[in-house]
Amino acid sequence: MGQMAVDAAGVVGKAEGFAALATGGGxxxxxxxxxxxxxxxWLTDDVPRTIILDKTWDFTGxxxxxxxxxxxxxSSKCTGGAIQDAxxxxxxxxxxxNQAVAQPTVPLKNIIIQNVEFLELNxxxxxxxxxxxxxxxxxxxxxxxxxxxxxxxxxxxGPAASNRVTxxxxxxxxxxxxxxxxxxxxxWTLYFTGSKDTVTFKGNYLHSTSGRGPKVGGLxxxxxxxxxxxxxxxxxxxxxxxxxxxxxxxxxxxxxxxxENAAQPIxxxxxAGAKSVWTSSTGVxxxxxxxxxxxxxxxxxxxxxxxxxxxxxxxxxxxxxxxPVLPVTNVKAMVLQNAGIGKIKA
Length: 346
Fold this sequence. Notes:
The structure is a single chain. By secondary structure, the chain is mainly β. It has a single domain, classed as Pectate Lyase C-like, CATH 2.160.20.10. It has helices at 36-44, 288-291, 311-317, 331-338; strands at 3-6, 30-31, 50-51, 57-58, 70-71, 85-87, 108-114, 116-121, 125-126, 132-134, 137-143, 146-150, 155-157, 163-168, 171-173, 190-192, 197-202, 205-209, 215-216, 227-232, 235-246, 250-255, 258-268, 277-278, 299-301. Helix 1 (36-44) links the parallel strand 2 and strand 3. It is globular and about 55 Å long.
């Protein structure tokens, strides 16, 4: 199944941006689960809790085992065992071009996940599992988390609304032995396609990935995607494919970010249109009359182009409370120092 590694502590600080009102367990006394069964019960009941994880929780074998046929994705070109094969989840292997399938989830709200590492969740197999899967939520703060060696998405949200979300100071490590693009870089990284989502994505470190880092919008379902994504002061490094992939229903404001050795910082799907992104490599004074301040420059080092200047994104941002953004000058050093587990400053 997978493991959760921790650096035990209670919640420190508060979220910036859209999930600023998140309180998690609130006044609930911190408690340490005695075993996996108790941990699972606490995570799935409706009682406000502050759960302290004081060790590595290894879920391998705890949920049982099963044997099932799988497949190699139709797009696979890898040889020598390097490909990420797929579990035949909900008949995925039989579908033309291996399209997406739905997963059952339980909607929750006012959740804080802080200082936890998720790893070893069936990394050889697509549909081997998502580290964090959200389908209907509000006030979700994910902070100082590290995710690596996961079968599918590190984080996925949708198609139901996730509403107010902040993801901050976290590390998404795509290093893997099994990859879709045969390059030891994970493809399925972050996917945001809820029907009414506002996501603050700040101070995060994404590296050694080859796609969906993140994908915003674009899920074909009965629910129309509607995602506003504010990317601020993040660091992308060694990206062998696309960082941003934008689909229908996406609006992205990207500022103060650094891309280094990123082959394709942005890829816009044909159904996304030109209204999906506002970014700049030099700073944009045109932001001032709309959002009340200049947009801050992004930095591209040995990377592809990252362009987009549609004011519909700024118009949407005008009525929102955005997180503060710092100039890009020191973003790389700041992110490397702060992102991931065990790096919380009281």
